[in-house]
Write a structure and sequence with these properties.
single chain; 300 residues; mainly alpha; Mitochondrial carrier fold; 11 helices; globular; repeat; MCP_transmembrane; MCP; transmembrane helix
Length: 300
Amino acid sequence: MQKSSQTNVKMGEKMLCAGTAACMADIMTFPLDVAKVRLQIASSSVKQLTSNVLTLQASGLGPQYSGLLGTLFGMARNEGLKSLYGGIVPGLQRQCVFASLRVGLYEPVKDMYTKHLNVGESATSVMIIRIASGITTGAIGISVAQPTDVVKVRMQAQSRGTGAVKYSSSIHAYQTIYRSEGIRGLWKGLGPNILRNSVVNAAELVCYDTIKELLLSYGIFRDGLPCHFSAAFSVCQARQAGFLGFYKGFTASFMRMGSWNVCMFVTFEQLKKLSAQFNSERQSNASKTSLAVLAQKATL
């Protein structure tokens, strides 16, 4: 996220652009996220229950599927197409909060650290600032957005194929969790989530920021769509190298996050560009208006 022609984009505008871009990416890739959650739950349930599919179904976990495509087609066939977007509302709520903070605040926090820490301008110092900024905004974002994360995962996990629907809507889920588990229930798992999301956020944003800077500094691309796409695709490769084989559902997770990151970063950059252009035109029009007023007064 190297500074370029978008330096006149304010912090609030960057946060709005980040949240909007993340929501658009979520809508396009959400079925892959649902499939990832189902595969992970299925794997965990088999180990815990050590029983057959009928027992799993009776426990309310619904039909069990194998593989990414098997999960997607099986859910669509047994539970309806709507099941592929189960939890989309809290998912969008999560992105409106989480992405707005973790992505939208990254550049302002990075500028603040650069100004106040005085660690120098060496490559190592710049990298330290970037990593610290990514960790900071990731921790802030998930600390605020944790309730939406809890609701999203629970709504994705519930099965409509067996009628085992505990939450009828996101509002109902928030209310049910609060009544049965208290306020702590909405922030359940916050500690591990802070650790995970701060590290992942730093890895994604630092990778994107660094690759984009290299592409621009070596003149490989101008600050435009090809540059943004290439930098975002590099983030996908970094995730693949870092998380391969760590858990069941990796294929779904990688495809989801790979396509999600490309969509989010590219859309984010385009929205920032549009915002910068709008601000420039507004400032230009304001200057022209001021000059016209001064000229009119001078003739009086």
